[in-house]
Amino acid sequence: MSDVDGYFMPRADQVALVALLDEVPALVEDLTIAITRQDRLSGGGPKTRNGSDEQPLPLSVEAMEAHDILHDTLAGWVTLVCEQRHYPHPRNDTLTLARWLKTHIIALALTEGAEESHDEIRHAIRQARRATDRPRERERLVDPVQIYEAGTALLNATEIAKIAATMGEDYQGLNLKRVLRLRNANHIEPVLQTADGLDLYRIADVLTAHLTYPTRKRKAA
User: Fold this and answer.
1) What is the pLDDT of residues 50-103, one digit of tens each?
2) Domains of the chain
3) Structure pTM?
4) Distance separating the N- and C-terminal Cα atoms of the chain
5) Is there a contact between 164 and 175 (Cβ–Cβ < 8 Å)?
6) What is the helix (H) or strand (E) element at residue 193, kind and residue range?
7) DSSP-derived 3-state class of residue 202
């Protein structure tokens, strides 16, 4: 039920939720690092099954799942506000969703059901924090299907190209140059830039664009 001021979320929870949403940009960057294990990759990592020296790209399944839970939780509350209050829906990336909720915190508080939003978002953020702080967790290699389904995960162009090389014939042409060409043609756009200037893209956006915009075949001489 709403309180005496008509809010479904108490003012104290509004303030606390804004503080939580302020943490999302840094948390998303930490999750991205954890997903690709950039903070713990070394020459002693797992070998490929064919015995070659080429290292497969180890990914953290837990970090991918935590990122998706965070994204889906934010997206669910944004959708509820937009539907009840007839607002246009913002872009569906984690950073935009967090900024939107912070900007529209009063609209969220006035939305029926919002009394549960603080606890749900806090829980999703706690899970994300735990996923970025497991230095001794054993490495796991992710199946290409899992990678595609975890489409909200953010990686740079080089990492996406490495993953695409493991995903079958349809994606064999998705190398680093192809990713950059898709970017230059405005078929994809970075969602986030790391502190060292690397552009990060949603995996699903790049995979979809690669299939939607086929490469031009050179004409025979």
Assistant:
1) 444 444 445 677 888 899 999 999 999 999 999 999 999 999 899 999 999 999
2) 1-40+59-139 (no CATH), 142-216 (1.10.1660)
3) 0.58
4) 73
5) yes
6) strand 192-193
7) strand
